[in-house]
């Protein structure tokens, strides 16, 4: 049986690779090949397979789901932010987490293969689509781990579905920040945030990377032509819709006074975060009250999932499993 499964995974990988090579007008070659290798890693090493769920005739949500759902292991829903799809953002974490949890990893709408014809760009719509897809896959109760933009969506999931969401981890997300905090931070960054969230060129992408990382830049030696291909694949597909999502994120009406969650909440921040500074974390912790706790990771920037994946995984596991 295991041999048949291995053969099927290899065939699926090469089928995906051939599909990439036959559709180069849609995806640049090098980034697409890396994406295919990541898919093989998710399949082979992490025991996950791709799945798409049609919510209705307008909306489809793509996931990585367990090949074999294990009884007794809790369900964890990691939710990514801007800067690529779920594979790229959770690469450093998915292996260890897949050994402790049944992972259902969605791509947010307009990322990966998730899409909708609906014009709703709110966090609530993203949250509703993810939970509806989970229900159709037979997932009842689960915990949420959400980073950056995904934190806004995860927060809404916890608010809208208190019976389904058991615990929530929010990492480096500007939920509940005041207009004064937001304006001050945007002035400090000194750039149009839309240009950084959806870069048009390698220079802007490198600026975003520098802003997100503190200790080191793994892309320092990556040539510009690869970054251009990354932008073409990850940013330019559904660019208009992603811009509309970002505009909602930046609008004053998007996040005025978030509800206090009923679930236990873990907040995790890098102490050198230059996107959403640690002051945002303390503000949110005060708002959430005694059912929340804040963990600060030393010498880490905004992208804690890249700079300190092992430490972050330990915090996630101990929080959810109660160890």
UniProtKB/TrEMBL annotation:
Family matches, as InterPro entries: AB_hydrolase_1, AB_hydrolase_fold, Meta-cleavage_hydrolase
Organism of derivation: Punica granatum (Pomegranate)
Gene3D superfamilies listed in its UniProt record: alpha/beta hydrolase
Recorded superkingdom: Eukaryota
Protein name: AB hydrolase-1 domain-containing protein
Residue ranges occupied by any AB hydrolase-1 domain in the UniProt entry: 74-309
């Amino acid at each position: 049986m295991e041999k048949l499964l291995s053969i099927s995974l290899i065939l699926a990988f090469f089928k995906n690779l051939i599909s990439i090579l036959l559709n180069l007008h849609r995806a640049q070659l090098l980034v697409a090949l890396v994406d295919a290798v990541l898919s093989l890693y998710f399949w082979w090493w992490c025991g996950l397979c791709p799945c798409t769920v049609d919510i209705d005739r307008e909306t489809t949500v793509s996931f990585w789901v367990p090949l074999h759902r294990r009884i007794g292991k809790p369900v964890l829903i990691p939710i990514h932010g801007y800067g690529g799809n779920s594979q790229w953002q959770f690469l450093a974490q998915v292996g260890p987490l897949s050994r402790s949890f049944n992972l259902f990893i969605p791509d947010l709408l307009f990322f990966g293969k998730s899409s909708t014809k609906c014009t709703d760009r709110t966090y609530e719509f993203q949250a509703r689509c993810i939970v509806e897809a989970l229900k159709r896959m037979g997932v009842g109760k689960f915990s949420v781990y959400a980073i950056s933009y995904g934190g806004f969506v995860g927060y809404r999931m916890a608010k809208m579905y208190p019976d389904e969401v058991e615990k929530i981890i929010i990492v480096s997300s500007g939920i509940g920040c005041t207009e004064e905090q937001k304006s001050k931070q945007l002035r400090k960054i000194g750039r149009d945030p839309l240009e950084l969230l959806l870069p048009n060129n390698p220079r802007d992408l490198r600026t975003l990377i520098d802003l997100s990382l503190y200790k080191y830049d793994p892309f320092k030696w990556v040539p510009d032509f690869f970054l251009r291909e990354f932008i073409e694949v990850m940013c330019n597909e559904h660019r208009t819709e992603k811009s509309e999502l970002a505009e909602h994120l930046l609008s004053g009406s998007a996040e005025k006074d978030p509800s206090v969650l009923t679930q236990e909440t873990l907040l995790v921040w890098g102490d050198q975060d230059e996107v959403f500074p640690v002051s945002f974390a303390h503000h949110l912790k005060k708002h959430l009250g005694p059912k929340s706790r804040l963990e600060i990771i030393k010498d880490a920037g905004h992208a804690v999932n890249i700079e300190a994946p092992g430490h972050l995984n330990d915090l996630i596991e101990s929080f959810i499993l109660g160890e």
